[in-house]
Design goal:
- By secondary structure, the chain is an alpha+beta fold.
- It has two domains: about 140 residues, no CATH class; about 80 residues, Nucleic acid-binding proteins (OB fold (Dihydrolipoamide Acetyltransferase, E2P), Beta Barrel).
- The protein is built from nine helices and seven strands.
- Strands 1-2-3-6-5 form a five-stranded mixed beta barrel.
- The longest helix has about 35 residues.
- It is elongated, with a radius of gyration of 26 Å.
Length: about 240
């Protein structure tokens, strides 16, 4: 079959099926949109990776001996692990729709995407962008802290010595705290240690280790920032009370 016959068959099929050619503007727009989708997927996957790093480096690993390995398993960032995988797949999918995508091997595309995700995710982590993103999610998306963060549920077992919530009032020897169940606690902080950069201010979200004295009263032994404590951190200060 020569080129003339092939062209003739193609023309007849186009006429028979009513196929209309895509305009240059539409074609160019789709090409740009595919690259935008690739870039967005890369940024989101990099942010997910930076939040995974933040969760791993700032997790309460030192509590393993006290609460067991199940405690650690329940605080891992599963949501961000899944998000990382999903957006890497999406990035690969849209890249293969670009003009360059069909020339690359699938495994090579994934490896390159992983490398760029690691690089940009590391930059986001070391520049603190991950903390800004997580704080914005905590402030503006209640479901994020209630259902996405595993450590949120873990740190709401006062009978086991774990309490978390937002500070409502700061006194000389105690603070008022409201947990995610809207229960208000009176927390005795006299002699308690702070671990990490804790701001004892109204509106600050904190994690507290201690003992439940009685209903809605908790004796604090150690107070930590909600975002976690670095692996190499130590107890830095004692809350001084008059």
């Amino acid at each position: 079959m020569d080129n003339k016959n092939i062209s003739q068959i193609a023309l007849e099929r186009i006429k028979g099926e009513g196929i209309k050619p895509i305009s240059r503007i539409v074609f160019s727009t789709k090409r740009v949109l595919f690259w935008v989708a690739v870039a967005v997927a890369l940024v989101v996957s990099a942010l997910a990776f930076s939040l995974i790093l933040s969760a791993l480096f700032n997790n309460d690993w030192d509590l393993y001996n006290k609460f067991g390995f199940s405690f650690i398993l329940r605080t891992l960032p599963y949501f961000w692990f899944i998000s990382l995988v999903v957006f890497i797949i999406l990035g690969e999918f849209y890249y293969r729709k670009t003009l360059l995508g069909h020339r690359r091997n699938l495994l090579m595309i994934i490896w390159v995407y992983l490398i760029y995700t690691t690089i940009f995710g590391g930059i986001f982590y070391f520049t603190g962008i991950d903390n800004y993103i997580e704080q914005a999610l905590l402030d503006n998306t209640p479901t994020y802290s209630n259902y996405v963060l595993g450590r949120h549920e873990v740190w709401l077992h006062p009978e086991e010595g774990l309490l978390s919530g937002d500070i409502l009032l700061v006194g000389d020897n105690e603070i008022e705290l409201i947990d995610s169940n809207n229960t208000i606690w009176i927390v005795d902080i006299e002699g308690a240690f702070t671990n990490g950069k804790v701001n004892m201010e109204i509106g600050e979200k904190v994690k507290i280790l201690g003992d439940k004295a009685e209903d809605n009263i908790f004796k604090a032994e150690e107070i930590r920032p909600w975002v976690g404590v670095p692996l190499n951190s130590t107890k830095k200060a004692i809350i001084n009370t008059p």
